[in-house]
Amino acid sequence: MSSEKSCCRKQILINALTKEVRIAVLEEGELVEFYVERKGSRGLVGNIYKARVLKVVPAVQAAFVDIGINRKAFLYVRDALNLEIDDDELLSEEVPDFELPPVEDVLTEGQELLVQVVKEPIGTKGPRVTTNLTIPGHYLVLLPSVNRIGLSRKISDEEERERLREIAERIKPPDYGIIVRTAAEGATEEELERDLLYLMKVWEGLLEKAEKKPPPSLLYQDLEIVPRTLRDLLTEEVSEVLIDSKAEYERALSFTKAFIPKLAGRIKLYSGKVPLFEKFQVEVAIEKALKRKVYLPGGGYIVIDETEALVSIDVNSGKFKKSSSLEETAIEINLKAAREIARQLRLRDIGGIVVIDFIDMTSEENKKLLLETLEKELSKDRARTKIVSMSDLGLVEMTRKRVKKSLGKTLTMTCPYCEGKGRVKSPETVAFEIEREILSLLRNPPHSFSTVRVYANPLVIEKLRNEEKEIVDRLSQSLGVEIRTIPVDHYHVEKFTVSKA
User: Fold this and answer.
1) What is the DSSP letter of 271?
2) Contact present, 361 and 334 (Cβ < 8 Å)
3) Could you tell me whether strands 301-306 and 311-316 are parallel, antiparallel, or unpaired per DSSP bridges?
4) Distance CA 59, CA 56 (A)
């Protein structure tokens, strides 16, 4: 492992030499977050549109909204009311429960409104939008539609929280709201005010566009991946930002000098001979993050499976060196698994419902320790997470806010052969299908041919020539034809061709 990896608390590595810009976040040399954006295919989250309501659907208390893309956006009645801001950084506050009005009393077909995308289109679902708009800066988030003050949940020092709240109260414009972000910890009032002035200019420009443009229209697009990452992630915790593209480095430096000047010295151009991601072993870590199985230190492993409904994670002891008792072994493996699971959820950007099958334990004290450890590790995550419960069987149910496709779904595609099942027919099964195909071909004698050729994957041909040779011999003798088996390397294991000659 390189010395650079072990000496730093937190690093951001930016690989921008191709059309695919990749960003890796390392903590103590270990990959914990990974982002990718292809030039010309930026995401929708954060974009603000002037939209038109197409259809109100009382059955689901929501409406379909036209924002000008090929999929209709989805607006829930709760998201159409100024109730609360759904922000990952915001410390959760008690919101009084009350009965929501019917969606038909809030929205009408043809109505024009400003909406912001809060969730990317995933699978067959279109983007989810809200009328609770947010304009993010480095230190603050402007809330144009909610008059309130919020503080990041990650600012834990009570004295600092109070100082920042007092500043926020002084600088907050009337009838607007602001959220104080994690990066504001230690910032001066002048820095916060400068950030707010910039956000107000952005909002005023957006309103001017809204007056002039008809729906559907894009009014505000979030920053590209590099400046967006610097805005959201560049804090005092980050020791350096290494960028391997000179052009992107200059743009990043210019952006940082304008918006985060005190940290501009941490933007550095990487010019080493070894590719940036190879030097810091990021390529290897990405490959591992695309695999189902993740090995734990000292033995044991976890298996991660993403399905339409939920994500299941199974914890296994594997070759873990057994302790003095089953209970001790279980808690040791489970604690290691909890730390790794929290990192993998963050790295793979997995969202939705997550069910974790830990190794069974009988001690209530150990169960409590496990949940506390999992919760502590999840607190490092920028996305909102919530542990719901732990069953008697050791199953932990939790949720993680899903905004976009996971890393696996971003970098990979559904297998065109198995269509996502993850399994294909065995060579033996295909061999029996070939037998039925030959019988069908020779069903009506007499035959005007003497040879049947079978083309198939080498694994299937090997099966027909060895373990299932009896199939070929029996058919050949009973039907009076020669059967030739021919391997085709490029054939998928399920594909075969039977022809007569």
Assistant:
1) -
2) yes
3) antiparallel
4) 9
